[in-house]
Design brief:
Blueprint (H helix, E strand, L loop, with lengths): L1 H14 L1 H8 L19 H15 L2 H20 L12 H62 L4 H24 L3 H7 L1 H7 L1
């Protein structure tokens, strides 16, 4: 009985649900293996830079001049050369197809360049807004500091106020000195009339 039970328990542990889930769940301490991708990969930043270069070139006068020259040469070649050498006869279907293909590629490239420019403008606008907020906060701080300095300077003695106070003190001293010259103090009276004091005694 015991060996059969032991063999049964040995067979049940690897076949159990816990063992199956252990092998199925990925381990969290190890990175996943890279997936196989069937679509082509590209760098969006490099593609955006290339689209901006193409859009800038499409918006220049040089592109218009070169496109006009190519179209004129195309039409002249297919009108003047012998029939055997013409590759696009009078309705110019191939030229129309080439121009429509160029327009179909140019429009998304221009839109992509505009979207990238809008993103840059949004970032610049956000930075300008933050810079304006910082400058407004600095201006308010400086305004408060200047107001505090002005209130502090209102209580400080200025040069003109000190000069006027000193002039007032000087006038007061001169007045007192003039009064002292006019009034004879008792000490001076005793010095001036010593005989009267002796006579009184």
């Amino acid at each position: 009985m015991t060996p059969e039970r032991e063999s049964g328990t040995r067979e049940r542990t690897p076949v159990g649900a816990t063992a199956a889930t252990r092998h199925r769940t990925p381990r969290l301490d190890q990175p996943r293996p890279p997936r196989r991708r069937y679509l082509p990969e590209w760098d969006p930043e490099a593609f955006g830079v290339m689209s901006e270069k193409i859009a800038r070139f499409l918006g220049t006068g040089r592109f218009i001049v070169w496109m006009t020259v190519v179209i004129i040469l195309w039409v002249l070649w297919n009108v003047t050369v012998p029939m055997a050498l013409r590759f696009d006869q009078y309705p110019f279907i191939f030229l129309t197809l080439a121009l429509s293909l160029q327009a179909s590629y140019a429009a998304p490239l221009i839109l992509l360049a505009q979207n990238r420019q809008d993103d840059r403008d949004r970032v610049n606008l956000e930075q300008d807004r933050k810079q304006n907020e910082r400058s407004i906060a600095d201006t308010e701080y400086l305004t408060r500091e200047i107001a505090a300095l002005r209130t502090g300077l209102g209580e400080v003695a200025t040069r003109d106020w000190m000069r006027s106070e000193l002039q007032d003190l000087l006038k007061e001293l001169e007045d007192r000195q003039g009064r002292s010259d006019r009034v004879v103090f008792p000490a001076e009276r005793s010095e001036r009339s010593p005989g009267r004091d002796t006579d009184d005694r």
